[in-house]
């Protein structure tokens, strides 16, 4: 999806949040904000929102020399999620429908998104996970089940740190022997990198590949050849999170999108209300 | 209060809302937004938020030749409020404490603020009024009562159209013979003008003066001499709404601010949580 004009206020907020992580000096925040407003005024708004976010953050990285601004928050979210994992795995294994149960937790974990919202509290994460199975799961669950049963190869597109631990539950149910996990190729916001997937123990289960870039989504033009080959050849692509949806929702291949609707623009593009847990099939075009 | 960096995303949203009222053409919205981002990048952020809003809207007025963009919405809000007035007046007159009851309604009416939020529905207004007296009124009610009892002259600073009808209930309780009502001197957002105050029948009760400018607040430097003289000489100044608070909260004179807290920055400056109905005395400094 293209960037909507309504995304502009959100970019300004996101960059202000990043500025406050970089420094405690209001003069630094102001300088970053003034430059970002200028850049946004001149930006090509036909880009997807994640590509514009990438550009804004890239400039911050160059300016400050800080490459992984969200490292501490990612670490905290990974640890919180790992702490919850045994209980959730037990819940999945005793569920009447472990695949659905695991999908519920994976989507609930998508709340851990520091691009969509600043100041996410531990309690918000705990509450999202606790109430995960009570949330209605909007979408194409039967089609998903059938696609999973029939796929010999599955490419799973990860989204955020912390959330990647919950993805593990779903990957365990999918049958790890068929799955390859893709993560971002370089730090951006709190998006999961290979180190986050390894921390979740996923390297013992599945091959992990970095997609070669730092878009907080999946911008195929910027992805490396290995990723693109897998994306084109996999029987099934499972895409987690808003950023992957925003960059792939117009792609011609069949994809199952799993995410929590966290902004009005994605609500509009997906046809699902704000807050909804979505499991959506986009059929091959 | 100075503009906070957190006000910047909100300005961008406000201008996008205005652009959508001006035209249905996305190219026009984009042009307005690009120019406003540029202007905001170069703005003096030591100004109060209402003064920056004034400048952004002034540029829109010049560009489009549309002077009163919110005319239709103001008319609709005035009519809705006038429809509610007889019932609310009866509630006030049978109340054990008519002054507090009228203050409640006047503050509830402050929800009609199209600067703080776009797309306000009739139901939101009705619900705010219906539940007005259940809302806790944070502040200095006893000091307010005493100040009202002792004042020979009261300057009442109006805020928005529609809301001005609810202000009438409070002005009736204050004793109209002592009150002068000030409104904006020219159209800005949905702020009340003399025509709105007349529609509420206030011209039969009190003298009405325009303050001589189109700041969505009270920027004394831009106010006319008549307004400033009244502001300085009145025994009591009652200030309605966030915009008046944002422009006068650092003024040295005693003022009673009545408003609903509608943004985190005003929550911070007032020390009251988002959503609170505030009746706050600022003592003479």
Automatic annotation (TrEMBL), chains A, B:
<dbReference type="InterPro" id="IPR002791">
    <property type="entry name" value="ARMT1-like_metal-bd"/>
</dbReference>
<dbReference type="InterPro" id="IPR036075">
    <property type="entry name" value="ARMT-1-like_metal-bd_sf"/>
</dbReference>
<protein>
    <submittedName>
        <fullName>DUF89 family protein</fullName>
    </submittedName>
</protein>
<feature type="domain" description="Damage-control phosphatase ARMT1-like metal-binding">
    <location>
        <begin position="6"/>
        <end position="277"/>
    </location>
</feature>
<dbReference type="InterPro" id="IPR014444">
    <property type="entry name" value="PH1575-like"/>
</dbReference>
<dbReference type="Pfam" id="PF01937">
    <property type="entry name" value="ARMT1-like_dom"/>
</dbReference>
């Amino acid at each position: 999806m293209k960037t909507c004009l309504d995304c502009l206020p959100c970019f300004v907020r996101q960059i202000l949040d990043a500025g406050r992580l970089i420094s405690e000096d209001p003069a630094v925040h102001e300088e970053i904000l003034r430059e970002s407003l200028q850049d946004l005024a001149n930006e090509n708004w036909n880009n997807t929102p994640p590509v514009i976010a990438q550009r804004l953050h890239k400039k911050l990285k160059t300016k400050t020399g800080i490459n992984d601004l969200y490292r501490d928050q990612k670490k905290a979210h990974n640890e919180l999620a790992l702490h919850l994992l045994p209980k959730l795995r037990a819940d999945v294994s005793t569920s009447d429908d472990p695949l659905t149960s695991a999908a519920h937790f994976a989507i609930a974990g998508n709340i851990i998104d520091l691009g969509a919202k600043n100041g996410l509290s531990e309690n918000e994460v705990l509450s999202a996970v606790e109430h995960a199975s009570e949330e209605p799961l909007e979408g194409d669950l039967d089609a998903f089940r059938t696609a999973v049963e029939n796929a010999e190869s599955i490419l799973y597109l990860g989204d955020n740190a912390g959330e990647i631990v919950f993805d593990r539950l779903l990957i365990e149910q999918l049958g790890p022997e068929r799955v390859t996990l893709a993560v971002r190729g370089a730090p951006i916001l709190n998006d999961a990198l290979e180190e986050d997937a390894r921390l979740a123990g996923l390297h013992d289960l599945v091959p992990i590949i970095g997609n070669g870039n730092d878009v907080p989504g999946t911008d195929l033009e910027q992805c490396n050849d290995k990723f693109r080959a897998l994306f084109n050849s996999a029987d099934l692509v499972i895409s987690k999170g808003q950023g992957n949806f925003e960059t792939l929702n117009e792609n011609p291949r069949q994809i199952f999108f799993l995410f929590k609707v966290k902004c009005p623009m994605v609500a509009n593009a997906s046809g699902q209300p704000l807050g909804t847990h979505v499991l959506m099939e986009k059929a091959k075009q």
